[in-house]
Amino acid sequence: MIRHRLHFAVLLLLRFCSPAAAITDATDAAALAALKAAVIPSSIPPFSCLASWNFSLAADPCTTFLCGISCSADGRVAAIVLDGAGYSGELPAVISNLSQLHTLDLSNNFFRGTIPHSLAFLSNLRSLVFTSNRFTGPIIPSSFLTNLSSLQTLELSSNSFSGLIPASLSSLSAISILDLSHNRLTGPLPSSLPPNLITLALRGNLLTGIVNRSVFESLVSLEVIDLSGNRFGGEIEGWLLRLPKIQQINLANNSFAKWEVWPAGGRGDELVAVDVGFNLIQGQLPANLAGYPSLVALTVSHNRLRGVIPWQYLGQKNGASFRRLFLDGNFLYGRVPPELIEGGMTGSFGDNCLEGCPLASALCSPRQKPGWICKSVYSGDGRRRQGDTMGV
Ligand SMILES: *[C@@H]1O[C@H](CO)[C@@H](O)[C@H](O)[C@H]1NC(C)=O
Ligand SMILES: *[C@@H]1O[C@H](CO)[C@@H](O)[C@H](O)[C@H]1NC(C)=O
Ligand SMILES: *[C@@H]1O[C@H](CO)[C@@H](O)[C@H](O)[C@H]1NC(C)=O
Ligand SMILES: *[C@@H]1O[C@H](CO)[C@@H](O)[C@H](O)[C@H]1NC(C)=O
Ligand SMILES: *[C@@H]1O[C@H](CO)[C@@H](O)[C@H](O)[C@H]1NC(C)=O
């Protein structure tokens, strides 16, 4: 038994000590050559990774290429991680011959064209990273979806992908990181998303519609949601801040008109940061936010919020106190509690209808709105003045 184990250990050692010793599988070597051949030669700078891939020698990729690939002990290409040297060209379909590939990272280049359908054969693929290239077409051809069951990371941000986010994406149940930011995606959110998502980034697209509870309530692992810079509208509903694992929510630069915050009620314990800036949100600053114990960063800049800064944000804040508070560009009134200004906070209370905010403090710039604007906002809308001092 012991001898057996020793033998096994030696085998393991051999595998890990000489990972590059094996001659590259011939199909893999041919596919790598085809990949290099598909890259426009003038886009390959002299000292880049691809320049060093010399297939004209009897050189073997797994044993002699010093960068850009890594191989398994049996001579299969396991990862391609190219340098961002500015390579241009279209991905050849034959890349699917690299059947053991688990990582394909081409980020920060000028690769263009559509993602080849043949990528669907890469059933061992765990990480697909095409960030900052010039890919076009649909993010993922529907033929993709059956085989990529190992895919954990799909990062396609900063390209020119267009079309809808297909609901069939949710069949890729291993995906935990989905980043489709800064493309030209349109339409509403799909009716479902991959169930094990941890990070969802759809920032900077042309997405429309509402943030639908039925899409998110099954995402029990979701920690980060970034939908900023789209055209979402309607109400930000109370369930959102209470997703079980949620830490960061960014809905800035959309057209949300209403924000409802439910009492934390034992959920949302890990919520650290919320940004709903640059929307059309009316109503008051939600006092219930003070009940979220880890919430330290709040941005509501440039909305249509009225009323006072809730007293709950100070003394009654559950757990950690606010450390970043951007409330600028609303119609908040009343006195800014001195504790907020003196307490080493980052943020802004400027461009509101507040009083007691000394311009000498960086927190108070830009200056408050002119008195006539504040008066017109707080009179004639049926709101009682209740003896509140406008102070402007
Ligand atoms: C890709 O694999 C197929 C099947 O093994 C083979 O017929 C074809 O020649 C390969 N292509 C290249 C460029 O190696
Ligand atoms: C590859 O290596 C051969 C032999 O050293 C050399 O003649 C050739 O110029 C190299 N090709 C490239 C593209 O560097
Ligand atoms: C999935 O991969 C298998 C081989 O690994 C292939 O025969 C099949 O066509 C692939 N499915 C799709 C939808 O590409
Ligand atoms: C929310 O999504 C579900 C499922 O896609 C759909 O049936 C429902 O109509 C959507 N609700 C709204 C208000 O769009
Ligand atoms: C929203 O847009 C404003 C103005 O263009 C910009 O300053 C801010 O950084 C944006 N916020 C986010 C989260 O994208």
From TrEMBL:
The secretion signal range is 1-22
Gene3D superfamilies associated with the record: Ribonuclease Inhibitor
Domain of life, per lineage: Eukaryota
Which keywords describe this protein according to UniProt? Leucine-rich repeat, Repeat, Signal
**How is this protein named in the record?**
Leucine-rich repeat-containing N-terminal plant-type domain-containing protein
| Lineage of source species | Eukaryota, Viridiplantae, Streptophyta, Embryophyta, Tracheophyta
